[in-house]
Structure formats: structure tokens, C-alpha cells
Sequence to fold (82 residues):
Amino acid sequence: MCLAKAAIIQDGEEKIVMEGIAHMTVNNGKLLLSTIFGQQEQIEALVQQIDFVHHVIILKRNAIKHDELVKLKNKGGGSSEV
Fold:
């Protein structure tokens, strides 16, 4: 079977988050990874790269969440538009 694995970049190194991924859904900045056996993992990250040959999804943690950015802008008296 050609299932994927997901790795996240952490401290400059790839760390495997999940293996045997059959399905990935993106919803509001969160990824829902699912295996064919129903195991699920939700992670807040961005897809940095997908390597179809080696079946690897490379993820990168969000540097800052959208809501936190709005709060920071509002604190500084700037516009809340992001």
C-alpha cells in the first residue's frame, strides 16, 4: 500500500507525527490526518511540502495564530484588519 507519513519540522529536524495516512483534511488552519483504520490526529500546522514519490507530508508549525495576530494589532492601537 502507498500510504503517507507526516513529519513536522522541529528544531531544524524532521519528527514523524503519524504514519499510514490515507486521508488529510484542512479546516481553519488545522489538519486532520486519518489512517485507513480510523485513527485520527489533529495538528495545527501548515503543509510545507508533499513528496509523492516518498509518500511524505512535511509540516511546519504555525508561527502565530490568526487570533493572536489580531490581538497584537489591537493592543498596539493599529487596525484589526488582517
Q: What stands out?
A: Residues 67 and 82 are 10 Å apart (CA to CA). The domain at 4-75 is CATH 2.30.30 (SH3 type barrels.). Helices lie at 66-75. Residues 66-75 form the longest helix (10 residues).
